[in-house]
Known about the structure:
The chain is mostly helical. 49% of the residues lie in helices and 2% in strands. Strands 1-2 form a two-stranded antiparallel sheet.
Amino acid sequence: MARISSYTFSSLLVFFTLVAISSAQLSSTFYSSSCPNALSTIKSAVNAAINKEKRMAASLLRLHFHDCFHCLQGCDGSVLLDDNSTFTGEKTAGPNLNSIRGFDVIDNIKTQVESVCNQTVSCADILAVAARDSVVALGGPSYQVQLGRRDARTASQAAANNSIPAPTFNFSRLVSNFASQGLTMQDLVLLSGAHTLGFARCTTFRDRLYNESCTLDTSLASSLKSICPLQSGNGDNNLSPLDGTPAKFDTVYYDRLLQRKGLLHSDQQLYKGDGSGSDGFVKFYSKHTGAFWEDFGGAMLRMGALRPLTGSNGEIRMDCRKVN
Ligand code: HEM
Ligand SMILES: *[C@@H]1O[C@H](CO)[C@@H](O)[C@H](O)[C@H]1NC(C)=O
Ligand SMILES: *[C@@H]1O[C@H](CO)[C@@H](O)[C@H](O)[C@H]1NC(C)=O
Ligand SMILES: *[C@@H]1O[C@H](CO)[C@@H](O)[C@H](O)[C@H]1NC(C)=O
Ligand SMILES: *[C@@H]1O[C@H](CO)[C@@H](O)[C@H](O)[C@H]1NC(C)=O
Ligand SMILES: *[C@@H]1O[C@H](CO)[C@@H](O)[C@H](O)[C@H]1NC(C)=O
């Protein structure tokens, strides 16, 4: 199984890499001459933010995901645009409101990047690089980020509502949600591995504690009930780690799925224990850290290449919160 899946995976990788290179024109050396200090500036600002608060790594990784998963636009910094009286953007979309975070950190990174290279590095690229640096900072794999995305001048709240998967989704809905982005079931398992970092609010897993206990380990369910009471409105924003080690990029997320300890309904959908669906991939990555390390980077590149604006499309925003 390992041989077959790694062969299939390599073919897909080659295919998507070619697509990314030929249509998106992203390149890992995009800023080599225009802003040689861009990557080191981003990295040190990301590390400083994570040193202050470990969870920021998770929050920055998730921001890049929510920027990219959009049925109309792709990784184009649209998630960073603030709402105002004449503009409604993605920050207040259902999956994002009171949920995504890290905007002040992105502002701070942008300010530092602007001070080394005025209006050269896009907010969309900052998100992609900050996601990678966050993974590395908490002990995960490094990979070369493709660059050259430009920033959107528009955003669509409706599209954000419709594109970002919900924690209530079942397996087939998760698979088709990823397929609509050109991503495979294996990518779904790999990218969900990002839930090795960070936290989720009670509102996102309450149903699972009181309505679904047979798919959730009983001892975990009872300890979660103490932080997430039945009655809606009580403790809605209380946090639980998504795996047992929320500040360490590791394979514990997959281990816990094997033990029926996935926090979100959508997490546990990836492993049902009957050999169906993506059970095989979850088992495989739980046991093969090296393969997860290598394959996670590939999946992040495919996600990061979704419909970027390149060339003279879009703009290089001066302030990530608003169009120029
Ligand atoms: C497969 C479908 C996915 C679903 C249904 C999903 C859902 C969620 C939910 C409900 C939360 C908690 C939000 C809250 O408490 O308000 C969360 C957190 C998180 N998600 Fe996902 N997610 C998915 C895929 C991904 C992917 C692909 C990534 C990144 C590559 C990702 C990265 C994260 C991270 C790092 C956190 C923790 C954020 C923090 O602590 O600030 N997720 N996700
Ligand atoms: C997006 O969803 C939120 C709540 O889930 C809703 O309040 C908002 O009106 C939706 N926006 C659009 C444009 O459909
Ligand atoms: C940055 O460049 C823009 C034009 O690209 C210019 O309008 C602005 O004044 C410059 N800012 C600084 C601080 O140099
Ligand atoms: C998954 O959810 C979709 C949409 O809610 C539903 O139509 C479908 O029947 C569900 N599939 C399974 C296997 O439960
Ligand atoms: C459990 O499911 C029922 C029926 O679908 C629903 O009415 C109820 O609100 C759910 N309870 C929780 C705590 O989610
Ligand atoms: C509202 O936000 C949009 C998008 O960033 C921007 O184009 C517009 O100038 C903003 N309007 C005000 C009044 O700030």
